[in-house]
Amino acid sequence: MIELGGRKVLVTGGSRGIGAACCRLFAAAGASVLVHYRSAKSDAERVLSSLAAPVGSAHLAFRGDLADSTAIEEMFDLIQSRWGSLDCLVNNAGIWGPNPLRELDEEALAETLAVNVRALFLCGRAALPLLEESADGSIVNVSSTAAQRGEAFHSPYAASKGAVIAMTKSWSSELAPRVRVNSVAPGWVDTDMSASAYAGDGRERIASEIPLRRIATAEDVAGPIVFLASPLARHITGEVLNVNGGSVLAG
Ligand code: NAP
After folding, report:
1. Residue 174 belongs to some domain of the structure
2. Calpha distance 62→168 (Å, rounded)
3. CATH code for position 228
4. How would you classify residue 189: left for phi > 0, otherwise alpha for psi between -120 and 50, otherwise beta?
5. 250 inside domain
6. 17 CA distance to ligand 1 centroid (A)?
7. Domain hosting residue 84, numbered range
8. DSSP string of 119-174?
9. Residue whose CA is closest, atom 24 of ligand 1?
10. Residue 89 C-alpha to ligand 1 middle, in angstroms?
């Protein structure tokens, strides 16, 4: 149903979790995918080798810390030299961790803002000239329910994800009509990022508080991301799509 043959897609943080599921789904729909990662080379290689490879597809991998603007420049140099075009940027890479206000760790605050906010601006700016050349250029930014309801002891993360929604809405009108910009806001997802919260009876407790009574898989989130990037969503821009099992009814 979703046909993305010939499309080129950059997924940041594609080595694990939601990003890896996105890479697989985009490739299954026929797209060429750049699997970006920070350090998990073997995970990224596993994802790369698992991707469907329809005729004409040309998957790539790139290692780089998104807190480093030079790495972002190098990633887009690779896209320019190997693909020469880009149809979709999925700003997925992110970090999460406790940082209570009372003991605010300034270094961790700066890192959260660098990876979860600044890098999205820099990737967006670098991608824009390419996306404007696409027949259906789009950006999908990964936010979180933390943006919508806040998250105690994680306010730097929640604030960074609030910024993701604000930039999505701002860019959607700024970049129209050439480029659509949307966001997904996942709740709890079963990935490495949030594994510590599922220890002990955490998994059951969290699932019991979600109306659909389960924690999302990475694939549950990847589907809506691929949908937003596809022609099926061609009249959707500025949207924040909740993928949270009904736990936060915002938007
Ligand atoms: P994950 O399993 O921890 O994977 C994170 C990915 O981001 C990895 O590919 C990692 O690369 C990459 N990454 C982390 N820091 C980076 C940096 N400085 N530079 C470049 N890449 C970096 O996370 P996930 O759960 O799939 O989360 C994906 C997105 O969903 C994030 O934006 C997250 O905030 C959001 N989200 C997650 C949940 C959840 O419950 N898991 C809920 C709501 C929103 P390496 O593999 O090389 O380390």
Report:
1. yes
2. 25
3. 3.40.50.720
4. beta
5. no
6. 7
7. 8-243
8. HHHHHHHHHHHHHHHSTTEEEEEE--HHHHH--TT-HHHHHHHHHHHHHHHHHHHH
9. 17
10. 15
Contacts with 104 (C-beta within 8 Å, 6 or more apart), sequence order: none
With respect to residue 251, please indicate whether it lies within any of the assigned structural domains.
Answer: no
Residue 204 CB–ligand 1 contact under 6 Å: no
Pocket mutation for ligand 1, best pick of 10, 11, 12, 16 (most atoms within 8 Å of C-beta): 16
- This prediction has a pTM of 0.98
Predicted confidence (pLDDT) per residue in 71-98, tens digit: 999 999 999 999 999 999 999 999 999 9
pLDDT digit string (tens) for 103-130?
999 999 999 999 999 999 999 999 999 9
Task: Specify the length of the chain in residues.
Answer: 251
Task: Calculate the average pLDDT of the chain.
Answer: 97
Number of domains in the chain: 1
Q: Whose CA is nearest to atom 32 of ligand 1?
A: 94
Residue 56 has pLDDT above 90, yes or no: no
How many angstroms does the Cα of residue 13 sit away from the middle of ligand 1? 6
Q: How confident is the model at residue 173 (pLDDT cuts 50, 70, 90)?
A: very high
Instruction: Name the percent of the chain lying above pLDDT 70.
Output: 100
* Domain annotation covers residue 3: no
